[in-house]
Task: structure prediction
Amino acid sequence: MQLVLRESADPQLRAFATPAYRALPVHIAGDLRIGMQFSGDMATILHTAIKDVCDVIQKMPVNYTRYDDNRQIFEVARGRAIRAQTTLTIDDQLLWSYGSFTLPRHIWLSMMRFSAWLEPAIIWEWQKLMNAYAQSQGRILDAQQMNRAMEWIDPGRTVLRARAQVERLIERNHPVYCIWSGKRLNMNTLDIDHVFPWAAWPNGDLWNLVPANRQVNQHQKRDRLVSAALLDASADRLNAWWHDAYLHSQNRLVPAV
Result:
């Protein structure tokens, strides 16, 4: 795949979205997980984009978000970034090389407790800011298009990788069981379930996606939180699923451990 860096004539756009950032594939967020490897031009562009994002965070919100006595609220400690290489692996060494971001504990707790109200307010303010930028350029943004762009990743798309792993195991006649009921699954009874329901927490991380019997998932569990007792009873099946799907030496998504 040929990736081309595109320069923008607008200095405001260059500040928020650098050429490397805009050169990333549209659905890159689904691949930014621990253990993922990138190579060639993609590795170089991703490395540059992450460094650019760190620069923007340090120079703009961290610098200008302050208490009323002008003290900075947030702190950034930049690490000794690894040089761009032909192969890039997302692991703890790489992530720490970009540095750390620190915020006061009471702010973090407040953001967690009030996230249901903070998120729509932030999205609304961000849309107002984008409209202001567009108006300064003599443009009008489509409200529906902005709303779609601000939506969480489609939950249907997030389960594709987990489903592919289940199908790979089933095709090899490897037994795969419903995490909740223990029933053996086949292609006709397979569903991918969010352990923590998408309606409660839009989380498409691999650890949150498990194989489930379609009848159990769609008619019994649905959008409910599982009980501690059920999680405990399903522990062996959860561990077996994670091992067989992601930690096995033949699996390419996560390095062997």
Q: What stands out?
A: Residues 193 and 210 are 5 Å apart (CA to CA). Residues 115-136 form the longest helix (22 residues).
